[in-house]
Specification:
The chain is of the alpha+beta class. The chain has helices spanning 25-28, 53-71, 82-89, 113-132, 174-180, 188-191, and strands at 16-21, 46-50, 96-102, 136-144, 151-158.
Length: 194
C-alpha cells in the first residue's frame, strides 16, 4: 500500500480524535466485554493485527538480550526475560495503545454508510501508520464496530537501536524510537517556559 492520497477520494467533514490510552488488549480482542459493547455486533469488528506481545518481545529483543548477557561478568546483572524486566522496572511501558475515531455518534454511528467510509479510512490509516513508523512494532490493531462509533485500538512496542553506553543494543524506548524517526521531544519544564 502506498500511503499517499489517491484519486477518487471521497471527502466528508468529520472530527478526528485520538488519544494515548492505558491499553487493554483483552478488551480490544473481546476476551471480556464492557457494558458499552453490543455483543450481537462483535463479529463485525475488524482485526488487522493480532500477535502475542511476548512473541514480539522475543522477535525484537532475544538476540540483543543474549549479546548483553554474554558481556555481563556478574550474574546479578543478567536479564532473564526482557518483557518481565520492562514490566517490573516501570521505567518504560511494555506497550502503548493509541485510539483513533472518525466522527461521533450523531454523524458516524456504526451501521451507517458514513461509518463504512470511516472504517475504510481507519483500516488504511493503520496500514500507513505501520509503514511510516519503522521503530513502532504494532502487535495488535482492532477496529471496533460493536460500539457507537467506529474506532481503532493500536497496541505497539517501541524499539530503538540508537547507540547506548549501557543496556541492550536494541531496547524498548518510546522517546528514543521517536527520536530515531526524527522527532525530538522536549521536557515538560521547557515546554511550559520554565
Amino acid at each position: 500500500m502506498i500511503c499517499t492520497p489517491t484519486k477518487g477520494v471521497v471527502h466528508i467533514k468529520r472530527t478526528i480524535s485520538g488519544r494515548i490510552d492505558k491499553g487493554s488488549v483483552p478488551h480490544n480482542n473481546r476476551e471480556f466485554i464492557a457494558s458499552n459493547v453490543d455483543k450481537s455486533r462483535s463479529h463485525e469488528n475488524i482485526t488487522i493485527v493480532k500477535e502475542d506481545i511476548k512473541a514480539v518481545y522475543h522477535e525484537l529483543f532475544d538476540k540483543p538480550l543474549a549479546e548483553y548477557n554474554a558481556k555481563q561478568k556478574r550474574k546479578d546483572r543478567r536479564i532473564k526475560d526482557y518483557y518481565e524486566h520492562i514490566y517490573r522496572r516501570k521505567q518504560e511501558k511494555p506497550f502503548y495503545e493509541l485510539i483513533f475515531q472518525i466522527g461521533n455518534t450523531e454523524d458516524t454511528h456504526c451501521g451507517t454508510p458514513e461509518a463504512a467510509t470511516a472504517t475504510k479510512a481507519l483500516t488504511d490509516f493503520v496500514q500507513c501508520f505501520m509503514e511510516r513508523n519503522p521503530q513502532i512494532r504494532v502487535f495488535n490493531a482492532v477496529i471496533h464496530l460493536d460500539e457507537d462509533t467506529p474506532h481503532v485500538h493500536i497496541n505497539f512496542v517501541p524499539f530503538t537501536d540508537l547507540p547506548s553506553k549501557k543496556g541492550l543494543s536494541v531496547r524498548n524506548s518510546l522517546t528514543k524510537a521517536l527520536e530515531q524517526q526524527g522527532f525530538i521531544g522536549q521536557s515538560h519544564a521547557r515546554g511550559i517556559g520554565l
